[in-house]
Design brief:
It is built from 13 helices and no strands. By secondary structure, it is mostly helical. 74% of the residues lie in helices and 0% in strands. InterPro entries: NnrS.
């Protein structure tokens, strides 16, 4: 039976053998295309062509719900196989899920009517949550149930955006998108808290991993979920000193966690310093939001882009580079160009967050160019891996 199952898996085209393959490839391609289109739109090249809701609404929605969610789907569909010991989604069911994601992207970009767009967009996250939740439920793996809860909350945030879109309420759309960003921050904190200390210990051949502090992990997750709820309600979108508290606690919690994981040896290993730097943006972003709520920072967009570009972009790129190697049977030694890519995405975050006040006309284009170059380098070296069988001959 095991031999027949293996033969059946090997008969599937490599791209559709496991979730990370199509979704990592599609997400990275979308990261490249979406930012290129956004920069072109800002330069006035698409005066006639408008996606659903206009270019700003499209950019605001598609970076978390198009790019971010694609990578989340690829990671979780692959990780759940390791968590449960059960075969992950593959073949035609995986094709259907990927096609649903792609159809929603095209519907947004090409200006499809809402009667077509809304069902396509609204279906993906609940379906993903069902697939992940079913696998976890079958083995009663309760410690990973919070992952499903965050996926369902992301679906609720997307529903808020779609409601705002249908009503023509830009404020409601913004609440949903920004709530989603903090939910993604919660997921990054949850997953990062597990893998970064583990990868650090393994990558540096340390004798033991830093001992986890479950209360600290739960507290930071709770703070991230709280700021997401406050954002969805609109309360966090108006400067208020009391709202600064959960943001400050989130920043402090992530700073303590990052400090506990740190080892000077990470700077010798690109797959490690890239993860640590990305997680550092999860300190900068909520700290910046706390400053804004206290009236000490004038532009709330800056810490939000620290979250979007530095944390989400940086952590995604670092995780893609490592996970893709491991799951294609390759040694954990990325191409040397990936060190440049990791540096570029962080330079882009610095440009987008810290340069607008100094170089207002240069900051955004520079950030965009750094982002495009980083993901172009990734795709140049990794895209072929997703379309080829594992080098060790194993399925997956």
């Amino acid at each position: 039976m095991q031999l027949r199952d293996r033969k059946r898996e090997l008969a599937i085209a490599p791209l559709w053998r496991l979730g990370f393959r199509p979704f990592f490839l599609a997400g990275a391609l979308f990261a490249l295309i979406a930012i290129a289109l956004w920069l072109a739109a800002l330069a006035g090249h698409f005066a006639v062509w408008q996606p659903v809701g206009g270019w700003l609404a499209w950019h605001r929605h598609e970076m978390p719900f198009g790019f971010g969610v694609a990578i989340i789907a690829g990671f979780l569909l692959t990780a759940v196989q390791n968590w449960t010991g059960r075969a992950g989604l593959s073949g035609r069911p995986l094709m259907v899920l990927a096609a649903l994601w792609l159809a929603a992207r095209l519907a947004w970009l090409l200006g499809a009517p809402l009667v077509m767009l809304v069902p396509l967009q609204a279906a993906f996250l609940p379906l993903l949550a069902f697939v992940i939740g079913r696998s976890l439920w079958q083995v009663r793996q309760r410690n990973n149930y919070p992952v499903v809860a965050v996926l369902l909350l992301l679906g609720s945030a997307d529903a808020l955006v779609l409601t705002g879109l249908a009503l023509g309420d830009d404020g409601l759309q913004r609440q949903g998108v920004l709530a989603a960003m903090w939910l993604i921050a919660a997921l990054m904190g949850l997953i990062g808290g597990r893998v970064i200390p583990f990868f650090t210990q393994r990558g540096l051949s340390l004798t033991q991993q830093v001992k986890a502090l479950p209360w600290l992990d739960r507290a930071t997750l709770g703070c991230a979920l709280l700021v997401a709820v406050l954002t969805a309600s609109g309360l966090a979108l108006k400067a208020s000193p009391w709202v600064a508290l959960p943001f400050a606690c989130l920043a402090l919690g992530n700073a303590v966690r990052l400090g506990r994981w740190y080892d000077a040896g990470i700077w010798r290993v690109p797959l490690l310093w890239s993860l640590h730097l990305a997680f550092a943006w999860l300190v900068v972003a909520p700290f910046g939001q706390a400053l804004w709520h206290l009236g000490l920072l004038g532009n709330p967009s800056l810490p939000l882009h620290a979250l979007a570009v530095g944390a989400m972009g940086g952590l995604i790129l670092a995780m893609l580079a490592r996970v893709s190697l491991g799951h294609t049977g390759r040694p954990l030694s990325p191409p040397k160009a990936m060190g440049v890519a990791f540096a570029l995405v962080n330079c882009g975050a610095v440009a987008r967050v810290f340069l607008p006040g100094l170089l207002p006309n240069l900051a955004l284009p520079l950030a965009g160019i750094c982002w495009l170059a980083a993901f172009a380098l990734f795709l140049a070296h990794y895209a072929p891996m997703f379309c080829r069988a594992r080098v060790d001959g194993q399925p997956g």
